[in-house]
Each structure stands twice: as C-alpha cells, then as structure tokens.
Design brief:
- The protein is mostly helical.
- It has one domain: MetI-like fold (Orthogonal Bundle).
- Helix 1 runs antiparallel to helix 7, helix 3 packs across helix 4 and helix 4 crosses helix 6.
- The N and C termini lie far apart (54 Å).
Length: 216
C-alpha cells in the first residue's frame, strides 16, 4: 500500500475520531448540567433515579455500554436498525457516559460556592435563574475547568473504543493498516495524532482558565 493511501485512510479515521469528540462534548456538557440539577433535586425519586443512572454509567465499562446501545435494540426487541445506526450508537454511548461524569463535576462546582452568594443575589433582586446565569455559573465553570480538562483528554483517547462496534475511527484504521503492512508506523502515526490532539485540548483549556481567572 502506498503512503498516500495510508495517509488517506488514517486521515479518514482521524476525522471520525474528531467527530465523535466534538459531538460528545457538545451534547454531554449541557446534559451533564441538567443531570447535576436532578442529582441536587429536592424530589427524592428524581434524585434517586439520577444517582442510580450515574452509578451505572461510572461503574460499568464504556466499551460494554457501547455494545449494549448497539446490539441491545435487536437482542431485546428484535428491531433491525440501519447501518448508519452504528455511529449513532457510539454517540449515544459516549453522550450518556460522559454526561454522568460531567454531572458530578458540575455538582461539586455548584456546591463549592458559598450559599451567601445566592442570598446576596436575591437581595439585589435577581431571580434564581438570573443569579445562576450571571453569578454562579461563571464561578462554577472556572472552578471545574481542571476536572473538565481531564475528562476531555480522556475523551480523546476513549474515541478509540468505538472500534468495539466496528466504527472505523483513527485507532481501528491504524490497526488495520499495521496488520496488513506488517508495520508499526501506522500505530506510531496514530499515537502522534492522539498526543497532538490532547496537547491542543490542554492548551485551549489553559487559555480558558486564564480568561476566567477574574472569578478566582
């Protein structure tokens, strides 16, 4: 196989990995915030359900969850899904898994803010929604950025787990080429991709931390 063909295959896999990363981040961050609200709810049934959901997502392997979301509909309900569902199953698995982790990060961030700030906002005439959006949320984001950065770096590496249901992301593409060509170079190239990707993620989050240093 020519190097141009190898690079093309790796490039296609890289785009899939980036797509999984971007969609997961875009959807799981807001969902995680909603789950955190449920985790802190005064409704005992909602709080109990959310705690159970988080426990399952954090207590079982992401690889297993991907397999359940992909094979489950057919094995449980005998529903045949189109070929495009393979990628959707990956996004669903990553979304629910990472939302659970982000929910606990958000909860810890909100609970770390003194209750006096809520009371001060009420005295100033802010509604609960306004107080959260203008006062609590910016501080919460600043305090949780290091933990969120760690999850983002883990997410970059976890995109390789999509191969368990045969989604041809970067690592699967590199492994297939390495096996065919009997060469370690494609795997080495994949390693460089993951490192550079994570380096850019860490760099961008450091920039965000500096921008939000006002809220220390």
């Amino acid at each position: 196989m020519e190097w141009t063909m190898i690079l093309t295959k790796l490039g296609e896999g890289m785009l899939v990995s980036i797509e999984i990363f971007a969609w997961t981040l875009l959807l799981s961050l807001p969902l995680g915030l909603l789950v955190a609200f449920g985790r802190m709810s005064g409704n005992v049934f909602l709080r109990g359900f959310v705690k159970f959901y988080i426990s399952v997502m954090r207590g079982t392997p992401l690889m297993l969850q991907l397999m359940v979301f992909y094979y489950g509909p057919f094995l449980l309900f005998h529903v045949s899904l189109p070929g495009g569902y393979r990628f959707i199953a990956v996004l669903i698995g990553f979304l629910f898994n990472y939302a659970a982790y982000f929910a606990e990060i958000d909860r810890s961030g909100m609970e770390s803010i003194p209750k006096g700030q809520y009371e001060a906002a009420a005295i100033l005439g802010y509604s609960k929604a306004q107080a959260f959006r203008k006062i609590i949320l910016p501080q919460m984001v600043r305090r949780t950025l290091p933990a969120v950065t760690n999850e983002m770096i883990t997410l970059v590496k976890d995109t390789s787990l999509a191969q368990v249901i045969s989604v041809s992301e970067m690592f699967l593409a590199a492994s297939a080429i390495a096996a065919k060509e009997a060469s370690m170079l494609p795997l080495f190239a994949a390693g460089i991709f993951y490192y550079v990707f994570n380096y850019l993620v860490a760099l961008s989050m450091e920039w965000a931390e500096r921008k939000l240093s006002y809220y220390r």
